[in-house]
Write a structure and sequence with these properties.
With about 425 residues, the protein is α/β, with parallel strands linked by helices. It is about 45% helix and about 15% strand. Strand 8 and strand 9 form a beta hairpin.
């Protein structure tokens, strides 16, 4: 099928969206004349100009050689400029082969442009490399993954807006706080095209990720509404396929903004009433009319996690439970509860019964208490493995599956004789 046909099937839910969220980076399609898309993790979007190529995002360092080869199958022109929509590893890792090529051919080196916060992010990645390795091992279920230790820093940065004229094409770069504090969305006014980066990703916005730094739901919605004002006719995201047609572009952006605005409004309203975080998590709901949209499913992030991030932004880390302010060691609390329950085995047995009853959240609490009370008991770890395996099967979001899957694997290793 053509790119347009695949995009139509995604929009109408005729085909699972996840089939087109990640690609091998080996295929390139033209979105429009001179505007191309390489489906990868994340996407790379070449633009042909009268003075070489511009890449909007460059994917990961692990796929950089493949991406370079694919770009070259489409155009032999030198890389003039790479625009990073933000500093995440799947957007900033692919410039290396183009730098090497330019050096070998005597071409001017590619110019890398990004928002001014990107260098500080890359510095932080170097500082916390081990931590980020662990996060990504859990989030994407890839044991042994090592976070990169080298980065291609931008040559030019900007603060709020930057207009570039490259080979007869105008690129308008706009800063937004959304998934990151260093995000850029790109508007090509003459082509009526918008590149939102990760501000639109064909699922619930990644505004809650439980293992990453602060995200900005309210500012994110503002950026989406600013994109609507451009009246673009094609939206080319950094994950997933394009959205074609001015009406659909407007709808996708408006619905995504509305989801974020609703979660924000509900959460802040309850915070202003003095409600604890735990109660807010179970009270805030996505508006029903948005839950059926194919591009707003919780396949990656989860609305519940977005609520936590809104709380964190305004309320800090204290969740309203005074016992949690300066808690007892987890093992000590678990042993007290186990003694009251008749032993850690009793907690584990109840966890198994709760799984059978479909009460997976409660089962998780009791399985944790059981192994905290007796961390060396292989039988308790077998129960914990079963509980979190059930949680993986029940959760739609990749982030929840990743954390629960890591817990299941951890206990599986400790349940062996």
């Amino acid at each position: 099928m053509s790119l347009h046909e695949d995009a139509e099937r995604m929009w109408t839910s005729e085909e699972p969206i996840m089939n087109h969220m990640v690609g091998p980076g080996t295929d390139i399609d033209e979105v429009d004349e001179g505007l191309a898309l390489i489906l990868a993790f994340g996407n790379v979007m070449p633009v042909r100009t009268g003075d070489g190529l511009v890449l909007v995002d460059t994917s990961t360092p692990f796929s950089a050689p493949t991406i370079h080869k694919t770009v070259r199958s489409w155009s032999p022109d030198r890389l003039n400029t790479a625009i990073f929509t933000h500093g995440h590893v799947d957007h900033v890792g692919g410039v290396g082969p183009f730098d090497e090529e330019s050096d070998q051919n005597g071409w001017p080196a590619p110019m890398v442009v990004a928002q001014e916060g990107v260098p500080a992010r890359l510095d932080r990645y170097l500082l916390t490399r081990g931590h980020n390795s662990s996060i990504n091992q859990r989030q994407f279920s890839i044991p042994g993954f090592e976070f990169p230790s080298e980065w291609r820093y931008p040559d030019q940065t900007y603060r709020e807006q930057l207009d570039l004229e490259i080979g007869g094409i105008r690129f308008e770069l706009h800063h937004a706080r959304g998934e990151t504090d260093d995000h850029t969305w790109v508007h090509l006014p003459d082509r009526k095209a918008i590149y939102p980066g990760d501000l639109f990703i064909w699922c619930v916005p990644n505004a809650g990720n439980p293992q990453k730094v602060q995200r900005f739901a309210a500012d994110w919605a503002v950026a989406l509404r600013a994109m609507i004002d451009q009246e673009a006719e094609v939206l080319i995201p950094s994950h997933g396929l394009p959205v074609f047609g001015a009406d659909r572009v407007r709808q996708a952006l408006d619905d995504t903004a509305s989801l974020l605005e609703s979660l924000h409004e509900q959460t802040v309203s309850l915070m202003n009433q003095g409600v604890r975080l735990n109660d807010i998590l179970h009270a805030v709901k996505v508006p029903p009319e948005l839950t059926t949209q194919p591009y707003l499913q919780a396949t990656y992030d989860d609305p519940e996690f977005i609520v936590r991030n809104i709380w964190r932004y305004y309320g800090g880390w204290y969740d309203g439970d005074p016992a949690a302010l300066k808690p007892a060691p987890a093992g000590a609390l678990a042993r007290e509860i186990a003694d009251l329950a008749g032993g850690a085995q009793a907690l584990a047995a109840r966890a198994e019964a709760l799984v059978d009853a479909g009460e997976l959240r409660l089962a998780g609490h009791l399985a944790e208490l059981a192994v905290e009370a007796q961390p060396g008991d292989a039988g308790l770890h077998r129960v914990r493995t079963a509980v979190y395996s059930a949680r993986v099967a029940a959760e739609p979001s990749l982030m929840a599956k990743g954390v629960f899957g890591a817990a299941a694997r951890e206990s599986a290793a400790r349940s062996e004789p």
